[in-house]
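Run log, item B.
One chain of 308 residues. Sequence copied directly from the ordering sheet:
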Amino acid sequence: MNDKLIFREPSFDEAAKLSGIYALRDNKTCDSTVLDTYIWKDMYNVKIYLEDKAALTLMKDEEGYFAAMPFCTEEELPKYFGMLRDYFNKELGQPLRINLADEEAIKALDLMENPEFIVEEEFDLKDYLYDAEELRTLAGKKFQKKRNLINKFMKEYEGRWEYKIMCCVDEYFLEEFMKKWFEKKLEEGVDSRDTLLYEKNGLLEVLRNCDKVTFRIGGIFIDENLEAFSIGSYNTREKMAVISIEKGNSDIPGIYQVINQQFLLHSFEEAVLVNREDDLGIEGLRQAKESYNPIGYARKYKVIQKRS
């Protein structure tokens, strides 16, 4: 271990090592896999400190520097949490701030009872958790509307659509889709242009490095045109599929319900849980995620060190 923490930009060559480190302790949040780290690394100026069995991440937003919870074993959490606190206090000259801290780490560190810190739940950023088999089968009355939309889609596009497991060689289709998606969002007058641009560019960079970052992609093609796709990764410790990206042509009724089901059927047969990330406090997104009947949530917290 170095005496001084040296943070640097994460390399795609380190993605496999990071994936192993991210899985060293229980964590049901979407941050338990590395895919989001690489997709959003430019937006949040992500920097990492890496050891053989531990990783620390430093980020920056409009409020200044913040960190994620240390990635390490639960037994090592106190040590690396202390290292982060000392780095913020001594090197950055500010109190430690951690965003999106997972509930398991909060409990392991007993932070709720620690008078040195303020711990606040980030209600709008909780991840939605689902029973994977329920989303694969959509059985029962509570999924009737989903089945109706899928059946309507199947009937209307019978013989014209297919699901494909995609990979690096399909980069062209994905790039073209993302360009059209981005332009359509701008035409709709979205307020988050910069965020959309970071997402588009981050995703394309990940695709260009798909030999280094482990993830799975599936797409719905209609008349050989890509009309929807989903990208996700697998948390082996939790047996959980983490769905990071899901895009579809909103002019096609049922397209989102079809890609949702088909992706799990073909690409995550072994998954027991599904994490479909948060709703960002957006009412329409909240309704869409609740409509799939979550079985629970991966709650996240902001941890702020009190000034002495």
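Observations after the first pass:
- The longest strand covers residues 225-235.
- The two ends are 28 Å apart (CA to CA).
Flagged for discussion on Thursday.
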